[in-house]
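Marked as duplicate of an earlier ticket. Keeping the data here for the record.
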Amino acid sequence: MEETKCCVVSCEKPLDREYWDAQYKAKSTGWDLGEVSPPIKNYVDTLENKNSSILIPGCGNTYEAEYLLQKGFINITVIDIAPTLVENIKQKFANNSNIKVVLGDFFAHQGEYDLILEQTFFCALPPTMRQKYVWKMHQLLADDGKLAGLLFNRNFEVSPPFGGSKEEYSLLFKEAFDFLKLDVCQNSIAPRANSELFIEFKKNAGAIVNLYQFEGITCSGCSETITKKIAEIDGILNLSISSNYSEILIVSTKEIALEELQKVISYDEKYTIKKISQLH
């Protein structure tokens, strides 16, 4: 099986709970390596605090959690949206109190973690959700918390997985996180050689990261104009707009009043902005 083709479907199909559950029921899991990936294994080997609270989102068969348990870590949480999968891993770890298995939507999850491990979760999400991903990761991490793992450094003809580039990720995560590592992996498995980036991002606890729902943008030109105008607001460090123009991620040194944002975009009456406070 070509391991980089995880699901041979059009990305127009909703990538929801039913979709992912169907993949596991059909055992259509071409992304599954059958073991912890070498870059993450090596990274775990460098971690010293066995009490660290660790989250693995979109955990799949979670070989990463198995390896963490083998290494003596005692505070692991894994979450996935697919009921069939989650039931299987709940049974697998039924007698282990050092791991918590959660069935649910990552974006509605609550908690605080020292480390979040990224392994084929980001690439399974529609690209329209990337701003939401940054926002939620920042929200879930402790002040000194880190996001670490793998991102694809390539694009795909069939999706998911959805790829990207180092340049794109740099712009997306900038200012919300401090980049400790963002480099091409030297120890990827053979089929993924030269197509993975290893990331280690530390939360910028001094930054305020907010997500907003936006209505009215219909083209890239409008998006660029909006971005330029909002970026001129005092205190804005970085902002990005989702690829379907429906959400804006704003990183700032202070809380920006919604009224100020609305005023900046009021030159066109069709534009409206609303802060997203929490997802349920």
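See parent ticket for discussion. Confidence is low (pLDDT under 50) at residues 1-11.
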